[in-house]
Amino acid sequence: MTSTTSTTDLRRTVERFWAATESRDWTAFAETLAEDVVYELPQTRERIRGRERYVEFNREYPGDWHARVERIVAEPGRAGDSEQSGRPGQVVSWTHVTMGQEEMHAISFFTGDADGRIAAVTDFWPEPYEPPAGRVHLVERY
Amino acid sequence: MTSTTSTTDLRRTVERFWAATESRDWTAFAETLAEDVVYELPQTRERIRGRERYVEFNREYPGDWHARVERIVAEPGRAGDSEQSGRPGQVVSWTHVTMGQEEMHAISFFTGDADGRIAAVTDFWPEPYEPPAGRVHLVERY
Predict the structure, then answer these.
(1) What is the side-by-side strand order in the sheet with B118-124?
(2) Which CB contacts under 8 angstroms, 24+ apart, belong to A16-20?
(3) Which class for B94: exposed (0-12), middle (13-18), buried (19 or more C-beta within 10 A)?
(4) Given CA atoms A61, A99, A121, B100 in this order, what sign does their dihedral have?
(5) Strand B118-124, strand B102-112: pairing
(6) If you average pLDDT over residues A127-136, what whole number do you get?
(7) Could you confirm whether domain B3-124 is CATH 2.60.40.1220?
(8) pLDDT tens digit string along B91-137?
(9) DSSP per residue, A49-105
(10) Is the ipTM of this complex over 0.85?
(11) From the list B47, B62, B142, which residue is nearest A45 (CB)?
């Protein structure tokens, strides 16, 4: 697999992942995932192992949430000495998520497997906070 | 500029950005930045415009903080019809930051300019939170 192929694949897989999530198409969603996918949330130190549980986690997620992709950054995989040792690509997505009135950002790090499916997802959910004092001379608000 | 060159450049620039930050080498840090760099923090809706103020913001940042790069994801730029219209690459870094006893993750989205310098940085600082109820049947803790 050439590096160009593997990037394109994982970027497209991540685009399908978000489209399937937004349309609650759990069959299409499951098809983007490796069977032994690992999902991690460093903020809560939670981990989910396996496609079945990870699909269930998303399917059961409460609330009327909607996700819009803001940015995708995709890195080509690197071909190794043989096809077997090629390193799959990495993708990061920044999504804007609404849950009723609430608005959030989600940052997701994706690692692919050799078939262009998602082998690992690590999610961050940063929340709004008040700006610390002492830097008003440098910043503007938006 | 070929797409390979521009990725490599911005990835290296971001590596130098973090090395200079960690060593408080504000001259080397400034050299990684475009003069009109824009820094944004979506969580506080703060924005800093210009290299001078952004260097100052980092130089003045209080506390004995240390940053270790966990992961870098770098996307090649795309060559346009001419050298002038080539799109510079994008890089995301995930860093582990300590401030005394406190440990944090920082996610930074970088956009480059045509010279391989940093034209925009958008930072997220996700904090730990308690896992919501109702999903213990799917998750393990780590």
Answers:
(1) A140-141, B46-49, B33-41, B118-124, B102-112, B90-99, B65-75
(2) A17/A110, A17/A118, A18/A67, A18/A69, A18/A93, A18/A95
(3) buried
(4) negative
(5) antiparallel
(6) 91
(7) no
(8) 999 999 999 899 999 999 999 998 889 999 999 999 999 998 889 99
(9) ESHHHHHHHHHH--S-EEEEEEEEEEE--B--SSSTTPBP-EEEEEEEEEETTEEEE
(10) yes
(11) B142
How many of the other CB atoms lie within 10 Å of CB of B96? Answer: 15
pLDDT at B29 over 90: yes
The answer on pLDDT for A112 being more than 50 is yes
pLDDT recorded at residue A9: 85
Cα A37 to chain centroid, rounded: 12
Q: Do B140 and A60 touch (CB under 8 A)?
A: no
Predicted model pTM? 0.90
Rounded Cα–Cα distance for residues A139 and B39 (Å): 9
| Burial annotation A104-115 (CB, 10 A radius, 16+ → b, else e) | ebbbbbbbbbbe
Q: Does B63 touch chain A (CB under 8 A)?
A: no
Rg (CA), chain B: 17
Which amino acid appears at position A38 of this protein? V
Beta bridge partners of A65: A99
Q: Where are the domains of chain B?
A: 3-124
Residue of B128, B72, B73 lying closest to B105 (CA atoms): B128
Q: If you measure CA to CA, which chain B residue comes closest to A141?
A: B46
Between the two ends of chain B, the Cα-to-Cα distance in Å is 44
Residue entry with tokens 């440098």:
A138
Provide, as residue numbers in chain A, all residues whose Cβ is less than 8 Å from the Cβ of B135.
46, 57, 60
